[in-house]
Design goal:
Helix content: 25-40%
Strand order of the largest sheet: 2-1-3-4-5
Low-confidence stretches: 123-131
Oligomer: single chain
Largest sheet: 5 strands, parallel
InterPro entries: CheY-like_superfamily (IPR011006), OmpR/PhoB-type_DNA-bd (IPR001867), Sig_transdc_resp-reg_receiver (IPR001789), WalR-like (IPR039420), WH-like_DNA-bd_sf (IPR036388)
Number of strands: 12
Keywords: DNA-binding, Phosphoprotein, Transcription, Transcription regulation, Two-component regulatory system
Strand content: 15-25%
Order of helices and strands: EHEHEHEHEHEEEEHEHHEE
Radius of gyration: 18 Å
Protein name: Response regulator transcription factor
Distance between the termini: 43 Å
Shape: globular
Pfam families: Response_reg, Trans_reg_C
Number of helices: 8
Length: 231
């Protein structure tokens, strides 16, 4: 089945170039040229992935991202000319899964799109007997069918990347992961020292699952090495 992509880019020429490229990759592309139009299209039919420019008329990309994250974990890839480390950290902090700075090659963009969709769909069970229904650690329950995460009786809304990172730790409860290993396993890309990406996602995950994020009990920092689950 063809995957649907919502492309949110106010530059008509760039939008057309990206849309044509992705259609040649057998994606179904729906284009929006401002934030309000994008939100309406998203609410009408949730896509498999969103390509999102940050500088949009009517409703900014950041505000659109926050509104989508209130209701969905759909993979979101930011495409923006605002390529500083701070801009990337802010975008990822608001719930984006990946960030690609303009100008970029169409080869790189299509590779990122394929990887993001592959990561999001590989967590879907093939049948009722093909994978464990849930993962558990202390008060955390991670449901593999519904993607629900509960801390005790409280439901916690995670982005797709946060869900994947938590799943990685919960399926390897005694293992320490370096930042490079986490990036390679979750983003399926070379690391190149992308510490901001890992730091932001770990911080956001802690804010959602820890009672005291500054003194985490679930996601522990192993100084000079990386992170692990629990003690």
């Amino acid at each position: 089945m063809k995957k649907g992509i919502l492309l949110v880019e106010d530059n008509i020429e760039i939008s057309q170039l990206i849309a044509d490229t992705l259609k040649n990759e057998s994606f179904i592309v729906t284009a929006a040229f401002d934030g309000e139009e994008a939100l309406a299209l998203f609410n009408k039919n949730e896509p498999d992935l969103i390509l999102l420019d940050l500088m949009l008329p009517k409703l900014s990309g950041t505000e659109l991202l926050k509104k989508i994250r209130e209701k969905s974990r759909v993979p979101i890839l930011i495409i923006s000319a605002k390529g500083s480390d701070l801009d990337k950290a802010l975008g990822l902090g608001f719930g984006a899964d990946d960030y690609i700075s303009k100008p970029f090659s169409m080869i790189e963009l299509t590779a990122r799109v394929h990887a993001a969709i592959r990561r999001s769909t590989e967590y879907l069970p093939q049948d009722s007997n093909s994978c464990q229904n849930s993962l558990n650690y202390k008060d955390i329950t991670l449901d593999m069918h519904s993607f629900a995460v509960n801390i005790g009786d409280k439901n916690v809304q995670l982005t797709s990347k946060e869900f994947q990172i938590l799943k990685l730790f919960m399926t390897n409860q005694s293992r320490v992961f370096t930042k490079e290993q986490i990036y390679h396993l979750i983003w399926e890309d070379d690391y190149y020292g992308n510490e901001n990406v890992i730091n932001v996602h770990i911080r956001r995950l802690r804010e959602k699952i820890e009672v005291d994020p500054s003194n985490p009990q679930f996601i522990k920092t192993i100084w000079g090495i990386g992170y692990k689950l629990g003690e």
